[in-house]
């Protein structure tokens, strides 16, 4: 099992993923939805983080909230075509995810939470997840932040705290029956990047 604390078999700092998903742990949210956490799925997360910080095409986005346009409190780089993704490891990661979950991941978007004041509010992934059941993998790099899930009608949150290299995978009806968010926090934190894998097949209703 790859671990940051064990010497790599290949004595290399090149980031790599655990294609066997050895550490995967599934949390059943309800009859139709689940979330899987795969601790340490990526080894060498810091090298990938550093690389993406400098090479990704970060953009400041805004969006309509009711009647006003608000600037999103984070930066995003979108790669609708996986071939354009800025690091070869992202291609390897998408392939491993496709093989494991049976969904062809052919694009991705990357978010940068510059510090603890950046966040994303409660949402479902919308246009990229129009199938009744979808599988949405999110890889964490950089600082640890909270990642919360709660039922669409409200209720207690499932509180995940992925650290660098951890994978969180939302499955089933998570994008319609549940909401997820990365809340702001008062405790100072360094930057975090999340890599969100998308599949054009899931953007088409079934
Ligand atoms: O940053 C994360 O962990 C989640 C991001 C997310 O949910 C999104 O961009 O849709
Ligand atoms: Fe999301």
TrEMBL record:
UniProt entry tagged with the keyword Cell division:
no
Q: Which GO terms describe its molecular function?
A: dioxygenase activity
Keyword list, A-Z: Dioxygenase, Oxidoreductase
**Among its keywords, does the record have Oxidoreductase?**
yes
Query: What domain of life does the UniProt record list for this protein's source?
Result: Bacteria
Q: Could you tell me which Pfam families the record lists for this protein?
A: 2OG-FeII_Oxy_2 (PF13532)
What biological process terms from GO does the record include? Answer: DNA alkylation repair
What stretches pass through the bilayer?
A: none
Q: Which InterPro entries match?
A: AlkB-like, AlkB-like_sf, ALKBH3, Oxoglu/Fe-dep_dioxygenase_dom
Q: What is the protein name given in its UniProt record?
A: Alkylated DNA repair dioxygenase AlkB
User: Species name for this entry?
Assistant: Nocardioides lianchengensis
């Amino acid at each position: 099992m790859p671990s940051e604390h064990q010497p790599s078999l290949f004595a290399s700092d090149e980031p790599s993923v655990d294609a066997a998903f050895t550490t995967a742990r599934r949390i059943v949210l309800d009859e139709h939805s689940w979330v899987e956490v795969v601790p340490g799925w990526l080894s060498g997360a810091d090298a990938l983080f550093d690389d993406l910080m400098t090479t990704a095409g970060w953009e400041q986005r805004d969006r309509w909230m009711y009647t006003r346009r608000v600037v999103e409190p984070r930066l995003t780089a979108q790669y609708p075509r996986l071939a354009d993704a800025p690091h070869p490891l992202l291609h390897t990661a998408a392939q491993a995810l496709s093989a494991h979950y049976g969904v062809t991941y052919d694009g991705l978007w990357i978010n940068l939470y510059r510090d603890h004041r950046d966040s994303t509010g409660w949402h479902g992934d919308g246009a990229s997840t129009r199938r009744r059941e979808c599988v949405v993998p999110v890889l964490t790099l950089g600082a640890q932040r909270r990642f919360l899930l709660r039922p669409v009608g409200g209720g207690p949150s499932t509180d995940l705290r992925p650290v660098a290299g951890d994978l969180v995978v939302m499955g089933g009806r998570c994008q319609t029956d549940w909401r997820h968010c990365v809340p702001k926090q008062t405790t100072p934190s360094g930057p975090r990047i999340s890599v969100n894998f998308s599949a054009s097949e899931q953007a088409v209703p079934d």
